[in-house]
Amino acid sequence: MWTLRFAATVAAVVTIILNAHHGFISATTLEYAVMLAALNAALDVAKSALLPAALTAWRRGAYVIALVSLSLFPPLFCNSVWNAVSQVALSRTAASMATMGAIEARDRDLDVRRRKSDELATLEENPIFQASAACALPKTKDARTLCQAVADLNSELAAIDARLTSPTPPDPQPAITWLAELTAKSRATVAFIVAIAPVLLAELVGSLGFVIAAAPKPVIATEPPKRPVGLFCWRTLGVWPRPPENPSAAPAAPRATGSETSSTAQRSATAPNISWSIPQ
Prior knowledge:
The protein is mainly α. It is built from nine helices and no strands. It has helices at 2-26, 30-59, 63-124, 127-131, 141-164, 174-183, 187-213, 229-237, 258-270. The longest helix has 62 residues, at 63-124. The radius of gyration is 47 Å and the shape is elongated. The two termini are 89 Å apart.
């Protein structure tokens, strides 16, 4: 379970850093920034430690402490998720702000060009415009006013066309754009789901990983190894020698049978008593 503990530790550290950084950038002064960072970090550490503490208290019979720990976990978990998601959203917004601004400006230019083109088409259908030979010979005051409006619209359309012909900035988040087109959802909805999914997984791993890793190991009953049936039969018949119970011990001397014991005693009784003397 050390791999799960390692993963839970990494996830908890990441969420603590996200929460602390979000608290630091949320304040306007340095002292409040430090206090909010420390507060968010402390709350996130408490969130990661509440479930293991509740499990330990329940095993020891302290049920009140276990229930209090469990009741404190949901609000701390929601607070940690909100801070982490806000920090991720702010980081992505700051990274793609310039490109998204260029894309939004291009979309606005397209809308303005469409509207200006409709206005120009309406003015060109005016009988005064047609009577002035497409503003080539404006003779009356109304004709000159109309031709001036047409000229202004043409100059605005030319400026818009010049901006639209510039290189299109690349999409900063092509995956989100593709998912938005695939699911028919707005970019904001898809971006929120993409931002909250990894943060939510990190929060769950950082909170539940320690509890799962602390689960007791199951006791597996071990059975003695079974001897092969064929080998057992051969050893029973005496064909295959049995191995000694203690291989390191010296082999025991063979036991003598009853007849061998009596014959040995008789030979020792009938043997002559021979003594040898050494001359002085």
